[in-house]
UniProtKB/TrEMBL annotation:
Subcellular location: Cell membrane; Cell projection, Dendrite; Cell projection, Dendritic spine; Cell projection, Filopodium
Residues annotated as signal peptide: 1-19
Biased composition (Low complexity): 340-349
Domain FERM: from-to ranges: 1-202
SUPFAM superfamilies in alphabetical order: DBL homology domain (DH-domain) (SSF48065), PH domain-like (SSF50729), Second domain of FERM (SSF47031)
InterPro entries: Band_41_domain, DBL_dom_sf, DH_dom, FA, FARP1/FARP2/FRMD7_FERM_C, FERM/acyl-CoA-bd_prot_sf, FERM_2, FERM_central
Alphabetical keyword list: Cell membrane, Cell projection, Cytoplasm, Developmental protein, Membrane, Signal, Synapse, Synaptosome
Cited Pfam families: FA (PF08736), FERM_C (PF09380), FERM_M (PF00373), PH (PF00169), RhoGEF (PF00621)
Protein name: FERM, ARHGEF and pleckstrin domain-containing protein 1
Organism in which the protein naturally occurs: Micrurus spixii
Amino acid sequence: HKSVSNIFFFMCPFRYLFALQVKQDLAQGRLTCNDTSAALLISHIVQSEIGDFDDTIDHEHLAKNKYIPQQEALEDKIMEFHHNHIGQTPAESDFQLLEIARRLEMYGIRLHPAKDREGTKINLGVAHTGILVFQGYTKINAFNWSKVRKLSFKRKRFLIKLRPDVNSNFQDTLEFLMANRDLCKAFWKICVEHHAFFRLFEEPKPKPKPVLFTRGSSFRFSGRTQKQVLDYVKEGGHKKVQFERKHSKIHSVRSLTPKSTEQLSVVPKQSCSFTYGDGADSLVVQSCQQGKELNISVEDGGPHATPSLKKSPKEGQGIDGTTMATMEEEEEVVKDRSQLSRSQRQQPSTGSLAGSPHLSELSINSQGGPAIANATLSPNLSPDNRHASPLISPLLNDQTGVRADDEEEVRRKRFPTDKAYFIAKEVATTERTYLKDLEVITLWLQSTVSKDDCMPEALKSLIFSNFEPLHKFHTNFLKEVEQRIALWEGRSNAHLKGDFQKIGDVMLKNIQSMKQLTVHLRKHSEILLELENGIKNSRRLEAFCRDFEMQKVCYLPLNIFLLRPLHRLMHYKQIMERLCKHYPPNHGDFRDSRAALAEISEMVAQLHSSMLKMENFQKLHELKKDLIAMDNLVTPGREFIRLGSLSKLSGKGLQQRMFFLFNDVLLYTSRGLTASNQFKVHGRLPLYGMMIEDSEEEWGVPHCFTLRSQHQSIVVAASNRIEMDKWTEDIQMAIDLTENCNDPASEFHGNSPPDTKSPEDPTVDQESEDDLNASR
């Protein structure tokens, strides 16, 4: 077991070894982060090992090397990120790896299972700031070192004694139960090390051995504190260490410059220097200088009792190890620290603390977030900085005194800031996602269907003959967009960069070609209907579709993927509207963008009605799954309008009900006591001939109104006036549409079961006008 200071002192100067540690943590599952962050980290590791992106080489390399558990699910995302690292050297990739890792919320935190006083399962962790409490991977509480008075453990109970608040003398003690004494003691030791390393100025002095008997644990932190390490380096005691970087044998020369290609036979030796400054980045040391002493002891009445350890502001310590520092002593210590802090802040700053656990402006959430489109995070790695070693981090190099405006200028040169560029990046990112959605049909569904002969040949031909042309077209479309972005960023053909800072011409060309696919897009509504008819007529096909939707690759209902092509057209239209709004009329790309917008608007207008019908059809099918005993919900001509919660007045008072409004009927339901949480239908109100009456004065209930149909009347109440107005407006609109159709009868009404069950069933709510009379 190495102390914290040894690990810190060993890793900070050697960034390459630090990168290897991050790689090991990923492989062993100790670095907790979301899939996007994990894929981005692995993409930089792959870039440092094999060089620039190549589809074939990437597939082979990822198949042979496992960087993270369950890597197969992330391979596409890893390759997508790796494609953006073209031109990065191994040194730059290592630096980017550490930049991303140190911004992870869970970086450096090991979770220890425990339970609170109520028996709830939680996880405890310790960081430079204090002790953290997690529920799963979500942080629910944090105890800063400045608020903790004492840490101890007794058998398998871990105790945290907090300092009293300023306005209260009450001292709170938190208790956590761990699996056994050994685990509890191990976590207590980790807390002792972290507190001593990050909070104390010097190594705790050894406690004199007791003469008569021992009590508590004799463990103490041994090693230099963070303050001592930084002072040692600042005074010049740390010499630059020469080391050789061992490149991977399979590293490609594609990402190396011609100059470096000549030196492939000899790997240059490089040095690392570590400098420290007391500027704004030195957050950890400042927190050390402002805190109070923490008393750490152990209370264990078990047979393993050993001498206790206690850190006091002065040397006077009792034999029993329980003497507490007085408030006067603590105030004196704080005063001395504040004077030391002021004297240190007067010294000139020569750098910043690399690897310090504070978060910078750009942080990556380990629990979620959007995908990172740009994988290069550091603007400090400039190709013009020829004096610095490529393996030395700008945060560790004393020659990187670059002004903020110079860094921003370098970043602007490397990454375009035009809004049109980010719109083009959005097109590429969403096109990749759309292509994967098409592959669910053209690749995964087709391969699964070929193994199980359960789908009619006519249906197979109808589906795949209309989706494969779309997949082929959008594959080529994505390649063109990625090539344009590469030219835009100057990753290749830099002399032609000025001619390719636009995306409208690419969109216009492909949208015009997309018009030829309209005949296939019109078939999608037919595909949806035929697939549903096939499921109705074949239980085997129904079971097949249900099993396919349960697979990981099909993360949504199958019908949703059939709707994707029409939804994609709407997205193209929105993108082109934003692009035209961004460009001034005299811009070189404005004419092509405007023409592309006109073309895609024409396609959307032609297919809009078909898309609305398909969406309504899918909504009815999803509602059918959630409503009990509603087999004939999906009928020709029925349209879903809205759903929402209203309170229904009955003999039992106001009861909350979920209402579903269609263009011919209104259903009110409640959540049933079933494993699937389906809705139980309590009543059906045909809209033909229905009347709406305001009933606030009659019933004395705010925001209530009466719905009177031909055979039944109910009184409902909304939560507020706005909600009531929306419901009455939508219901009245549906009533008017029904009367205009002049069709009081429908398949739904004729086949509906009666509103109430047998009187012998005690579970049925007799929700009718009789209840209203009883309530009156």
